[in-house]
């Protein structure tokens, strides 16, 4: 038909190949080696915060001789930790708007002031007790950041295949601090000698020696916190220059929108209840572990070892499960159900052992230690898996706000339990501590059993 040869323009393809998109600027990501230094500083601060919070529970018998603390006083000292979560919305806003550096500096400053306040060596006992309570409260105000910022730090600094592990390390170091106090306190501070053969003078000298050893531990904790505060002040960047993943660089919801979405998300609230009840009950119960194990003829040192191994075992098992979750995605729910099922069985075993007069089951030291440690291992190891599940459930809500809400709920449960224990001890006679403590053990563990069963049901929905 007389058609000529085609021109160069006519031979151009109608559909442009996708290689031209490579000229566009993709989202760059880079992983920095300094992320491990940032994680180490944060984890050590969380360890010291947990260590100061749980300082008085493991040495409650020694504190009673040194400062005249009653059982209700010990419960109040532990209660200041959950009370510190009252202004949690302010700390979450600070983390969301100003970043991790400023919020961590503010929290660390509270820790330094609290450790310094309770370390002032005054001779007047009433004023000294007020300073100790004030120091514990200031340390509790650092709790919202130390217990909630772990997932935020891992998302900001770590790639996706290391995020669950980093979350586990940052979140569980506060529990390791609590475990360390179970060992440091009873080993450095001697238990009181209450034998009747002692004279009044020798008993007074013994109380002074106990007070000096407690003062030594408080000085050491103050020095460690001050050194960490200086390290954070000198070097702790708010975020890396280039984010480690696309998720870290993505736009998140605003503070107000995040709170509204969390409170209207029924699935999130159900999982939050499954997290808050067992972990909150266990935290409050561990804070007064020496008190509740006294009727079972468990010494102050042995109670410390029980608390230590239950917490350390939970942290080690939790990190191992986090590594497993990093390698195999999509199994968080199954892992949590198995952990909470094990905790239900262990807490039931412990409760039935304490009710030996009704169940006629054998009650030996080995059974008591094993069941108590297993409860701590199963519940404590579920914390990082829960936090990762929360983040995946409510994305793109910022990690700090999400974990702030759930840790507040857990500490609310802890505070309610310790509040009950405080008034329960005041309502009875101090001359009959065994009956009161036995009832406290049964109440705490029965609540833990019910909480685990409810948690399993919620997670199966």
Order of helices and strands: HHHHHHHHHHHHHHHHHHHHH
What is the overall number of helices? 21
Major sheet description? none
Q: What is the rounded Rg?
A: 26 Å
CATH class: Mainly Alpha
What characteristic shape results from the CA principal axes?
globular
In the CATH hierarchy, what is the superfamily? Answer: MFS general substrate transporter like domains
Q: What proportion of the residues is helical, as a percent range?
A: over 70%
Description:
The chain crosses the membrane at residues 36-56, 76-95, 102-120, 132-153, 165-189, 216-236, 266-285, 305-322, 334-360, 366-391, 403-424. With 461 residues, the chain is an all-alpha fold. It has a single domain, classed as MFS general substrate transporter like domains (Growth Hormone, Chain: A, Up-down Bundle), CATH 1.20.1250. Helices cover 75% and strands 0% of the residues. It has 21 helices and no strands. It has helices at 35-53, 60-67, 71-83, 88-98, 100-118, 125-141, 143-148, 150-157, 160-188, 200-234, 246-249, 255-264, 266-287, 289-292, 300-327, 332-354, 356-359, 365-381, 383-394, 399-427, 433-460. Helix 13 runs antiparallel to helix 21. The longest helix has 35 residues, at 200-234. Residues 9-26, 195-205 and 428-456 have low confidence and may be disordered.
């Amino acid at each position: 038909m007389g058609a000529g040869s085609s021109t160069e323009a006519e031979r151009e393809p109608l559909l442009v190949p996708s290689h031209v998109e490579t000229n566009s600027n993709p989202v760059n990501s880079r992983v920095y080696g300094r992320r491990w230094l940032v994680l180490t500083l944060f984890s050590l601060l969380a360890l010291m915060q947990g260590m100061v919070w749980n300082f008085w529970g493991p040495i409650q018998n020694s504190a009673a001789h040194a400062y005249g603390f009653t059982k209700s006083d010990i419960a109040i000292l532990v209660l200041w930790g959950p009370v510190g979560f009252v202004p949690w919305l302010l700390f979450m806003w600070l983390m969301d708007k100003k970043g991790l550096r400023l919020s961590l500096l503010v929290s660390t400053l509270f820790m330094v002031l609290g450790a310094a306040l309770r370390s002032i060596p005054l001779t007047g006992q009433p004023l000294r007790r007020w300073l100790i309570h004030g120091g514990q409260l200031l340390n509790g105000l650092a709790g919202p950041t130390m217990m909630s910022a772990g997932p935020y730090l891992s998302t900001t600094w770590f790639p996706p295949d290391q995020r669950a592990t980093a979350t586990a390390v940052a979140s569980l170091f506060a529990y390791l601090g609590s475990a360390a106090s179970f060992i440091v306190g009873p080993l450095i501070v001697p238990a009181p000698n209450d034998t009747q053969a002692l004279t009044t003078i020798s008993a007074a000298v013994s109380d002074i020696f106990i007070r000096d050893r407690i003062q030594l531990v408080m000085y050491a904790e103050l020095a460690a916190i001050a050194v960490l505060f200086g390290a954070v002040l000198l070097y702790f960047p708010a975020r890396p220059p280039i984010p480690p993943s696309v998720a870290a660089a993505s736009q998140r919801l605003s503070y107000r929108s995040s709170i509204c979405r969390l409170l209207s998300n029924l699935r999130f609230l159900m999982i939050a209840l499954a997290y808050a009840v067992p972990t909150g009950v266990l935290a409050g119960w561990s804070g007064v572990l020496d008190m509740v194990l006294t009727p079972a003829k468990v010494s102050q040192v042995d109670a410390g070892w029980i608390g230590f191994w239950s917490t350390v075992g939970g942290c080690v098992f939790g990190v191992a499960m986090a590594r497993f979750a990093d390698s195999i995605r999509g199994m968080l729910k199954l892992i949590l159900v198995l952990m909470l099922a094990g905790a239900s069985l262990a807490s039931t075993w412990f409760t039935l052992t304490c009710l030996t007069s009704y169940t006629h089951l054998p009650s030996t030291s080995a059974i008591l230690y094993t069941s108590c440690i297993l409860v701590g291992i199963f519940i404590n190891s579920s914390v990082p898996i829960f936090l990762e599940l929360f983040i995946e459930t409510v994305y793109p809500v910022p990690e700090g706000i999400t974990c702030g809400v759930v840790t507040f709920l857990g500490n609310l449960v802890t505070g309610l339990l310790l509040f009950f224990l405080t008034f329960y001890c005041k309502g009875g006679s101090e001359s009959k501590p065994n009956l009161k403590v036995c009832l406290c053990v049964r109440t705490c563990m029965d609540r833990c059993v019910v909480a685990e069963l409810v948690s399993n049901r919620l997670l199966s929905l």
